[in-house]
Write a structure and sequence with these properties.
Length: 220
């Protein structure tokens, strides 16, 4: 894989290229199924049965297909056509119905209040600082009032750290601070949950941390 660069266009080209040239097993972010926090939300009923859910930056659709199998009405979108095609093929194998779209999350065709929930594993942090406000507005627009935005993104901070951690190129490229999250989502959402965690704190103390946040769309 090529090194990741920093402009919005370079990031998008990075993903387009990865999905064209690298199998899912070689993509660091791709997992075969949904993340534990999403599974917990489904099992707890926090995502109500049969809700309409948009998986934004769905990649090869691991979480979209999981949600469809769990009975949700799923729409999935990614900028990379090859990723969406893999998702479509996976859903077909299982016989699940997902409404697949290729598109840019900053310019989606869905109407106001279309979705009960939006899930995001690793898409928001692909956007550059000047695109974040627009992204948050778009997510808020597509969610019904009271709808839930489930965000997972790379953190620029580690626990107890106020200043962003610029230790690695990866964290500098994708990391988002708590202040930046509040600036983007605070105007439209109430924070129900903000958790800073590491995938492997014991195995690799230097591994990046990530945010798991639940944002509730304000009723206006
Ligand atoms: C870290 S990957 C996560 C993929 C998937 N959610 C998963 O968990 O496997 C980020 C995804 O966001 C997509 N993406 C980045 N910028 C995007 C944009 N502006 N519009 C739509 N998708 C975008 C990438 O193509 C990539 O599939």
């Amino acid at each position: 894989m090529n090194a990741i660069s920093n402009t919005g266009q370079e990031i998008r080209e990075y993903y387009l290229n990865c999905y064209e040239t690298t199998a899912p097993a070689g993509q660091q972010w791709t997992t075969a199924t949904a993340a534990p926090e999403l599974v917990s939300l489904v099992r707890s009923g926090a995502l109500p049965q049969g809700a309409s859910v948009l998986d934004i930056g769905c990649g090869v659709g691991s979480e979209s297909v999981y949600l469809a199998g769990a009975g949700f009405k799923v729409t999935a979108v990614d900028i990379a056509p090859q990723a969406v095609e893999r998702g479509r093929a996976l859903a077909e194998v299982y016989g699940y119905s997902v409404d697949w779209h290729v598109g840019d999350v900053l310019d989606l065709p869905f109407g106001q209040g279309t979705f009960d929930a939006v899930t995001d594993r690793g898409c928001f942090h692909c956007l550059r600082a000047h695109e974040r406000e627009r992204f948050a507005q778009e997510v808020a627009r597509m969610l019904r009032p009271g709808g839930l935005y489930v965000l997972r993104c790379v953190s620029s901070q580690r626990p107890g750290q106020v200043r962003p951690d610029d230790a690695s190129h990866f964290v500098r490229t994708f990391g988002v601070s708590s202040t930046e999250l509040w600036e983007a989502f605070g105007p439209h959402f109430q924070a129900e949950h903000m958790e800073l965690g590491s995938a492997s704190p014991d195995a690799d103390p230097s591994s990046p941390y990530g945010w798991y946040c639940l944002w509730r769309r304000r009723a206006e």
